[in-house]
């Protein structure tokens, strides 16, 4: 079995990384490496070659002995050929006698108890030695195979644990990243929701304040209009009472007062008519009234000689001036209220348009965020699919390599078993040949004994001798 020593790393220390480790590389500590090397016998190619050379040497010795026997027989044959100068019958007779003598000597030597015992001990010792060598060799091979398998199991377990650790780290990293991303997205959504709620509350407060301000202004306008109406009514009543008193007072006095009263009534009618017109006619009306008032004042100053008439005239002028001021204030108030209402409507319209634009922007932003989330989720899914495919390919490669190693180990065990069977078969063949040779020797001995006149009954023991049993002793 050849062990790849590159699995245990190089003996020299490297100063830095020479490159990235392979996907299936196993990294162990120096102490673990020393422990594995101390508890494991690493058989190198030289030791395997040495064992093979020793086995071949044993076979060579056996073949050498067989060749020596064959050479000796060839030498005898050659010697017999060299002695062919004698007669053929003589040569054959001598050769037969020599062969029978050698066989008889060999048989006698082999049948000696001491020789048999020694040969038996030698045979048993040789058999036991061979068996012990076979057992030791088998045990050593099994130990080496077990150590190799244990080492490979350890390396595979280390690779498996490292791969599991890497998977767990990658899963934890992805899970942590997902939690962080989900937290960031949730915080963004909460911030947007809080901002939207604050903006809605602010807009509601602004609208409420605006409505309250409008209601306040309307209430103030109503109160001012009511007060103004009361004041106008009171002023009008005062003017009417003053006019009535003046008319009654003047009716009896002088006829000219009627003309003045008519002029005043005409002026009052014109004044009321002019009050209903717009602001653009106010200046002309005011000029006309000033002119008429001046003419009337001149006429009245010329006509009136007492203080009562002057007081009534001053009262009418004061009431007219107050009424003009009230009308101007009402006109200014209405103009201001109109402008305020237009500004409020314009502001509300702008707020509504701004709200629509913000809602459109928020909808677009939410849609974009949703699309980004979907795109990110698809990207993560694609990355996980690629990672799973890569891991699947690595697992397939690991399984294929493991199956190849298992098949190689199975072939090695099959080869060892076949080798043991071949050795046993060769040994049985050798024993069979040896037994045939002994049986031939025994038959020759029996024939020789019969020729010598031995009693055949005495030959039953040697004839019934179990050569196989003796051979197996």
Automatic annotation (TrEMBL):
Question: Which Pfam families does its entry note?
Answer: TPH
Q: Where in the cell is the protein located? A: Cell projection, Cilium, Flagellum
List residues traversing the bilayer.
none
Taxonomic superkingdom:
Eukaryota
InterPro entries given for it?
A: CFAP45 (IPR033253), TPH_dom (IPR043597)
Chief subcellular site? other
Where does it sit, as one GO cellular component term? motile cilium
Trichohyalin-plectin-homology domain mapped to chain residues: 108-452
Chain coiled-coil ranges? 230-298
Keywords carried by this UniProt record = Cell projection, Cilium, Coiled coil, Flagellum
Please verify whether the record's keywords include Chloroplast.
Answer: no
Family indicated by similarity:
Belongs to the CFAP45 family.
Q: What is this protein called?
A: Cilia- and flagella-associated protein 45
The species this protein belongs to is: Pelagomonas calceolata
Q: What is the lineage of its organism?
A: Eukaryota, Sar, Stramenopiles, Ochrophyta, Pelagophyceae
């Amino acid at each position: 079995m050849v062990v790849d020593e590159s699995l245990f790393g190089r003996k020299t220390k490297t100063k830095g990384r020479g490159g990235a480790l392979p996907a299936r590389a196993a990294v162990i500590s120096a102490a673990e490496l020393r422990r594995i090397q101390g508890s494991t016998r690493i058989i190198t190619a030289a030791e395997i070659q040495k064992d093979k050379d020793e086995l071949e040497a044993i076979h060579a010795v056996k073949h050498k002995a067989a060749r020596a026997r064959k050479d000796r027989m060839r030498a005898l044959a050659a010697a017999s050929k060299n002695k062919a100068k004698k007669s053929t019958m003589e040569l054959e007779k001598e050769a037969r006698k020599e062969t029978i003598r050698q066989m008889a000597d060999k048989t006698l030597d082999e049948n000696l108890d001491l020789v048999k015992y020694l040969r038996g001990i030698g045979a048993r010792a040789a058999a036991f030695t061979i068996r012990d060598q076979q057992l030791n060799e088998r045990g050593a091979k099994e130990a080496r195979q077990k150590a190799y398998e244990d080492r490979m199991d350890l390396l595979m377990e280390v690779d498996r644990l490292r791969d599991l650790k890497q998977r767990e780290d990658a899963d934890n990293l992805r899970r942590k990243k997902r939690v962080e991303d989900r937290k960031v997205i949730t915080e963004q959504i909460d911030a947007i929701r809080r901002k939207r709620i604050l903006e809605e509350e602010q807009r509601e407060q602004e609208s409420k304040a605006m409505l309250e301000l409008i209601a306040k202004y309307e209430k103030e306008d109503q109160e001012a209009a009511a007060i103004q109406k009361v004041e106008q009514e009171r002023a009008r009543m005062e003017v009417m009472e003053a006019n009535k008193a003046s008319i009654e007072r003047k009716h009896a006095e002088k006829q000219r007062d009627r003309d003045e009263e008519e002029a005043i009534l005409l002026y009052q009618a014109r004044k009321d008519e002019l009050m209903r017109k717009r602001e653009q006619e106010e200046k002309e009306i005011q000029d006309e009234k000033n002119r008429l008032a001046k003419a009337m004042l001149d006429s009245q100053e010329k006509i009136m000689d007492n203080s009562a008439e002057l007081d009534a005239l001053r009262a009418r002028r004061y009431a007219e001036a107050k009424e003009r001021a009230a009308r101007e204030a009402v006109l200014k108030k209405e103009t201001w209220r109109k402008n305020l209402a237009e500004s409020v409507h314009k502001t509300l319209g702008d707020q509504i348009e701004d709200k629509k634009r913000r809602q459109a922007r928020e909808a677009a932003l939410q849609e974009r965020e949703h699309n980004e989330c979907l795109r990110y989720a698809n990207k993560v899914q694609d990355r996980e699919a690629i990672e799973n495919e890569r891991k699947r390919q690595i697992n397939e490669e690991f399984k294929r390599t493991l199956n190849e190693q298992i098949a190689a180990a199975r072939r090695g065990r099959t080869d060892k078993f076949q080798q043991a069977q071949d050795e046993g078969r060769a040994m049985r063949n050798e024993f069979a040949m040896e037994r045939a040779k002994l049986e031939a020797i025994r038959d020759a001995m029996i024939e020789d004994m019969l020729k010598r006149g031995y009693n055949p009954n005495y030959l039953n023991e040697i004839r019934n001798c179990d050569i196989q049993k003796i051979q197996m002793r």
